Amino acid sequence: MPDLVTTPLQFTTWLSPGLPSGLFEVIADHVAQRLGREYELDVESTTSGPIHADDDRFSQGTTDIGFVCLPSYLWLTRGSAPKVELVPLAPVFADDRNQGQPTYVSDVVVRADSGIRSFAELAGRRVGYNERASLSGFVSLMSRLDRDGLGIEFFGDVQQVGSHQKALELIESGELDAAAIDANVLRGWCATQPDGGSALRSIDVLGPYPVQPIVVRAGVEPALAAVVAEQLCRPELLASVARFGVVGFGPVNHDDYTRLGPVVERANQLLPEPFGSVVAT
Prior knowledge:
This protein has helices spanning about 20-35, 70-75, 135-145, 165-175, 185-190, 225-230, 235-240, 255-260, 260-270; strands at about 10-15, 40-45, 65, 85, 90-95, 105-110, 125-130, 155-160, 180, 200-210, 215, 245-250.
Protein backbone atom coordinates (compact mmCIF):
# COMPACT_ATOMS: atom_id res chain seq x y z
CA MET A 1 0.00 0.00 0.00
CA PRO A 2 1.43 3.45 -0.93
CA ASP A 3 2.47 5.84 1.81
CA LEU A 4 -0.23 8.55 1.65
CA VAL A 5 2.06 11.11 3.27
CA THR A 6 4.68 10.84 0.52
CA THR A 7 2.43 10.04 -2.46
CA PRO A 8 1.76 13.17 -4.54
CA LEU A 9 -1.77 14.52 -4.41
CA GLN A 10 -3.39 14.23 -7.82
CA PHE A 11 -5.46 17.26 -8.81
CA THR A 12 -7.54 17.54 -11.98
CA THR A 13 -9.49 20.50 -13.28
CA TRP A 14 -12.18 20.07 -15.90
CA LEU A 15 -12.93 23.81 -15.92
CA SER A 16 -10.07 25.09 -18.08
CA PRO A 17 -9.45 26.75 -20.45
CA GLY A 18 -12.74 28.49 -19.61
CA LEU A 19 -11.39 29.42 -16.20
CA PRO A 20 -7.61 29.89 -16.20
CA SER A 21 -5.61 26.83 -15.22
CA GLY A 22 -3.45 29.18 -13.15
CA LEU A 23 -6.28 29.54 -10.64
CA PHE A 24 -6.33 25.79 -10.00
CA GLU A 25 -2.54 25.65 -9.96
CA VAL A 26 -2.50 28.23 -7.17
CA ILE A 27 -5.11 26.32 -5.14
CA ALA A 28 -3.38 22.98 -5.67
CA ASP A 29 0.02 24.37 -4.79
CA HIS A 30 -1.29 26.03 -1.63
CA VAL A 31 -3.18 22.97 -0.39
CA ALA A 32 -0.30 20.59 -1.11
CA GLN A 33 2.26 22.83 0.54
CA ARG A 34 0.16 23.24 3.67
CA LEU A 35 -0.20 19.46 3.85
CA GLY A 36 3.51 18.90 3.24
CA ARG A 37 2.82 16.99 0.04
CA GLU A 38 4.00 16.98 -3.55
CA TYR A 39 1.24 17.33 -6.15
CA GLU A 40 0.41 17.04 -9.82
CA LEU A 41 -2.28 19.01 -11.66
CA ASP A 42 -3.88 17.72 -14.85
CA VAL A 43 -6.12 19.78 -17.11
CA GLU A 44 -8.97 17.98 -18.88
CA SER A 45 -10.32 20.38 -21.50
CA THR A 46 -12.72 18.21 -23.51
CA THR A 47 -15.57 18.19 -20.99
CA SER A 48 -16.67 19.97 -17.81
CA GLY A 49 -16.34 16.80 -15.74
CA PRO A 50 -16.71 13.04 -15.95
CA ILE A 51 -20.21 11.78 -16.76
CA HIS A 52 -19.25 8.32 -18.06
CA ALA A 53 -17.31 5.46 -16.51
CA ASP A 54 -14.63 5.68 -19.20
CA ASP A 55 -13.59 9.18 -18.13
CA ASP A 56 -14.16 8.78 -14.38
CA ARG A 57 -10.68 9.50 -13.04
CA PHE A 58 -11.94 9.29 -9.46
CA SER A 59 -13.06 5.67 -9.67
CA GLN A 60 -9.90 4.89 -11.63
CA GLY A 61 -7.85 6.28 -8.73
CA THR A 62 -6.01 8.85 -10.86
CA THR A 63 -7.55 11.96 -9.29
CA ASP A 64 -7.72 12.79 -5.59
CA ILE A 65 -9.06 16.35 -5.74
CA GLY A 66 -11.06 17.75 -8.64
CA PHE A 67 -12.77 20.86 -9.95
CA VAL A 68 -15.93 19.94 -11.87
CA CYS A 69 -19.20 21.39 -13.12
CA LEU A 70 -22.55 20.63 -11.49
CA PRO A 71 -23.87 18.00 -13.96
CA SER A 72 -20.71 15.98 -13.38
CA TYR A 73 -21.07 16.32 -9.60
CA LEU A 74 -24.59 14.92 -9.84
CA TRP A 75 -23.34 11.92 -11.83
CA LEU A 76 -20.42 11.32 -9.47
CA THR A 77 -22.63 11.36 -6.36
CA ARG A 78 -25.63 9.41 -7.56
CA GLY A 79 -26.55 6.09 -6.03
CA SER A 80 -25.62 4.56 -2.71
CA ALA A 81 -21.86 4.68 -3.27
CA PRO A 82 -20.82 8.22 -4.30
CA LYS A 83 -17.52 8.45 -6.12
CA VAL A 84 -16.62 11.81 -4.58
CA GLU A 85 -17.14 13.88 -1.45
CA LEU A 86 -17.92 17.58 -1.56
CA VAL A 87 -15.46 20.10 -0.16
CA PRO A 88 -17.81 22.34 1.88
CA LEU A 89 -16.34 25.57 0.47
CA ALA A 90 -16.31 26.89 -3.09
CA PRO A 91 -15.01 30.05 -4.78
CA VAL A 92 -16.77 33.40 -4.52
CA PHE A 93 -16.11 35.44 -7.66
CA ALA A 94 -16.00 39.22 -7.91
CA ASP A 95 -19.35 39.80 -9.60
CA ASP A 96 -22.02 41.93 -7.90
CA ARG A 97 -24.67 39.54 -9.19
CA ASN A 98 -23.28 36.85 -6.88
CA GLN A 99 -24.01 39.03 -3.83
CA GLY A 100 -20.92 37.70 -2.09
CA GLN A 101 -22.09 34.08 -2.38
CA PRO A 102 -20.46 31.01 -4.02
CA THR A 103 -22.75 31.34 -7.04
CA TYR A 104 -22.39 32.44 -10.64
CA VAL A 105 -24.49 33.43 -13.63
CA SER A 106 -24.42 32.97 -17.38
CA ASP A 107 -24.67 35.83 -19.82
CA VAL A 108 -26.48 35.25 -23.10
CA VAL A 109 -24.04 36.91 -25.46
CA VAL A 110 -24.53 38.34 -28.96
CA ARG A 111 -22.53 40.63 -31.22
CA ALA A 112 -22.77 44.22 -30.08
CA ASP A 113 -23.77 45.35 -33.57
CA SER A 114 -26.53 42.78 -33.96
CA GLY A 115 -30.16 43.77 -33.81
CA ILE A 116 -30.89 41.14 -31.14
CA ARG A 117 -32.07 42.78 -27.91
CA SER A 118 -33.82 40.00 -26.00
CA PHE A 119 -33.98 36.23 -25.63
CA ALA A 120 -37.28 36.21 -27.54
CA GLU A 121 -35.41 37.56 -30.58
CA LEU A 122 -33.30 34.41 -30.74
CA ALA A 123 -36.17 32.66 -32.51
CA GLY A 124 -34.80 30.99 -35.63
CA ARG A 125 -31.22 32.01 -34.80
CA ARG A 126 -27.98 30.03 -34.68
CA VAL A 127 -27.22 29.35 -31.03
CA GLY A 128 -24.17 27.58 -29.61
CA TYR A 129 -23.24 25.82 -26.40
CA ASN A 130 -19.89 24.53 -25.21
CA GLU A 131 -20.76 20.93 -24.27
CA ARG A 132 -23.43 18.94 -22.50
CA ALA A 133 -21.70 18.51 -19.12
CA SER A 134 -21.80 22.30 -18.67
CA LEU A 135 -24.36 24.00 -16.44
CA SER A 136 -23.52 27.51 -17.62
CA GLY A 137 -23.37 26.82 -21.35
CA PHE A 138 -25.90 24.04 -21.92
CA VAL A 139 -28.22 23.40 -18.97
CA SER A 140 -28.89 27.09 -18.33
CA LEU A 141 -29.81 27.63 -21.98
CA MET A 142 -32.19 24.66 -22.06
CA SER A 143 -33.70 25.78 -18.74
CA ARG A 144 -34.39 29.22 -20.18
CA LEU A 145 -36.26 27.63 -23.07
CA ASP A 146 -38.23 25.42 -20.71
CA ARG A 147 -39.17 28.33 -18.46
CA ASP A 148 -40.87 30.00 -21.42
CA GLY A 149 -42.59 26.79 -22.55
CA LEU A 150 -40.39 26.55 -25.62
CA GLY A 151 -38.77 23.55 -27.28
CA ILE A 152 -35.42 23.24 -29.01
CA GLU A 153 -37.10 23.99 -32.33
CA PHE A 154 -37.38 27.62 -31.15
CA PHE A 155 -33.82 28.06 -32.38
CA GLY A 156 -32.99 27.76 -36.04
CA ASP A 157 -29.83 25.79 -35.37
CA VAL A 158 -28.02 24.58 -32.25
CA GLN A 159 -24.30 23.94 -32.40
CA GLN A 160 -22.09 22.16 -29.89
CA VAL A 161 -18.78 23.97 -30.23
CA GLY A 162 -16.57 22.52 -27.50
CA SER A 163 -15.74 25.51 -25.29
CA HIS A 164 -16.95 28.92 -24.18
CA GLN A 165 -13.99 30.53 -25.95
CA LYS A 166 -14.92 28.86 -29.23
CA ALA A 167 -18.51 30.08 -28.87
CA LEU A 168 -17.31 33.64 -28.29
CA GLU A 169 -15.04 33.49 -31.33
CA LEU A 170 -17.90 32.20 -33.50
CA ILE A 171 -20.22 34.96 -32.29
CA GLU A 172 -17.59 37.58 -32.97
CA SER A 173 -17.00 36.22 -36.48
CA GLY A 174 -20.73 36.10 -37.22
CA GLU A 175 -20.90 32.31 -37.52
CA LEU A 176 -23.11 32.09 -34.41
CA ASP A 177 -25.77 34.51 -33.23
CA ALA A 178 -25.67 33.76 -29.49
CA ALA A 179 -24.48 31.50 -26.69
CA ALA A 180 -24.80 31.26 -22.92
CA ILE A 181 -21.40 31.99 -21.37
CA ASP A 182 -20.20 31.56 -17.79
CA ALA A 183 -19.88 35.16 -16.60
CA ASN A 184 -16.49 34.49 -15.03
CA VAL A 185 -15.20 33.04 -18.28
CA LEU A 186 -16.64 35.99 -20.19
CA ARG A 187 -14.94 38.52 -17.92
CA GLY A 188 -11.58 36.83 -18.31
CA TRP A 189 -11.97 36.52 -22.08
CA CYS A 190 -12.90 40.18 -22.46
CA ALA A 191 -9.79 41.17 -20.51
CA THR A 192 -7.62 39.46 -23.14
CA GLN A 193 -9.25 41.15 -26.13
CA PRO A 194 -7.74 44.28 -27.71
CA ASP A 195 -11.17 45.96 -27.62
CA GLY A 196 -11.91 44.79 -24.08
CA GLY A 197 -14.77 42.66 -25.38
CA SER A 198 -16.74 45.64 -26.67
CA ALA A 199 -17.63 43.69 -29.84
CA LEU A 200 -20.02 41.61 -27.71
CA ARG A 201 -22.87 42.35 -25.32
CA SER A 202 -25.21 40.48 -23.00
CA ILE A 203 -28.95 40.36 -23.70
CA ASP A 204 -30.01 38.15 -20.78
CA VAL A 205 -28.70 36.74 -17.50
CA LEU A 206 -29.34 33.11 -16.50
CA GLY A 207 -29.05 32.03 -12.87
CA PRO A 208 -27.65 32.47 -10.33
CA TYR A 209 -26.48 28.89 -9.89
CA PRO A 210 -24.22 27.32 -7.26
CA VAL A 211 -20.62 27.76 -8.40
CA GLN A 212 -18.62 24.79 -9.64
CA PRO A 213 -17.79 22.47 -6.71
CA ILE A 214 -14.45 21.20 -5.46
CA VAL A 215 -14.54 17.46 -4.74
CA VAL A 216 -12.27 14.77 -3.32
CA ARG A 217 -12.18 11.11 -4.23
CA ALA A 218 -14.37 9.08 -1.88
CA GLY A 219 -12.29 7.14 0.60
CA VAL A 220 -8.97 8.57 -0.56
CA GLU A 221 -7.91 9.86 2.88
CA PRO A 222 -9.86 10.39 6.10
CA ALA A 223 -11.38 13.87 6.42
CA LEU A 224 -9.54 15.16 3.33
CA ALA A 225 -12.53 17.28 2.23
CA ALA A 226 -12.58 19.07 5.59
CA VAL A 227 -8.80 19.50 5.55
CA VAL A 228 -8.93 21.06 2.07
CA ALA A 229 -11.71 23.41 3.19
CA GLU A 230 -9.58 24.54 6.14
CA GLN A 231 -6.72 25.42 3.79
CA LEU A 232 -9.02 27.41 1.49
CA CYS A 233 -9.63 29.85 4.34
CA ARG A 234 -5.97 30.82 4.69
CA PRO A 235 -5.34 34.54 4.00
CA GLU A 236 -2.25 33.80 1.92
CA LEU A 237 -4.37 31.81 -0.53
CA LEU A 238 -6.97 34.56 -0.74
CA ALA A 239 -4.23 37.03 -1.65
CA SER A 240 -3.00 34.70 -4.40
CA VAL A 241 -6.37 33.99 -6.04
CA ALA A 242 -7.52 37.62 -6.11
CA ARG A 243 -5.88 38.16 -9.50
CA PHE A 244 -8.24 35.54 -10.93
CA GLY A 245 -11.31 37.41 -9.70
CA VAL A 246 -11.84 35.20 -6.64
CA VAL A 247 -12.61 37.23 -3.52
CA GLY A 248 -13.04 34.34 -1.10
CA PHE A 249 -14.55 30.92 -0.52
CA GLY A 250 -18.10 30.44 0.74
CA PRO A 251 -20.02 27.52 2.23
CA VAL A 252 -21.77 24.99 -0.01
CA ASN A 253 -23.54 21.73 0.72
CA HIS A 254 -24.73 18.71 -1.21
CA ASP A 255 -28.32 19.95 -1.41
CA ASP A 256 -27.21 23.16 -3.13
CA TYR A 257 -26.27 21.03 -6.12
CA THR A 258 -28.73 18.14 -6.02
CA ARG A 259 -31.74 20.46 -6.03
CA LEU A 260 -30.82 21.18 -9.66
CA GLY A 261 -30.97 17.50 -10.62
CA PRO A 262 -34.42 17.85 -12.24
CA VAL A 263 -33.20 20.91 -14.18
CA VAL A 264 -30.26 18.96 -15.61
CA GLU A 265 -32.50 16.01 -16.45
CA ARG A 266 -34.99 18.27 -18.20
CA ALA A 267 -32.22 19.91 -20.22
CA ASN A 268 -31.17 16.54 -21.57
CA GLN A 269 -34.78 15.75 -22.44
CA LEU A 270 -35.08 18.97 -24.45
CA LEU A 271 -32.00 18.06 -26.48
CA PRO A 272 -31.65 14.27 -26.16
CA GLU A 273 -29.32 14.02 -29.16
CA PRO A 274 -27.18 16.50 -31.10
CA PHE A 275 -29.48 18.87 -32.95
CA GLY A 276 -28.43 20.72 -36.08
CA SER A 277 -24.77 21.13 -36.88
CA VAL A 278 -21.77 20.41 -34.69
CA VAL A 279 -18.66 22.53 -35.08
CA ALA A 280 -15.34 20.69 -34.78
CA THR A 281 -12.85 22.11 -32.30
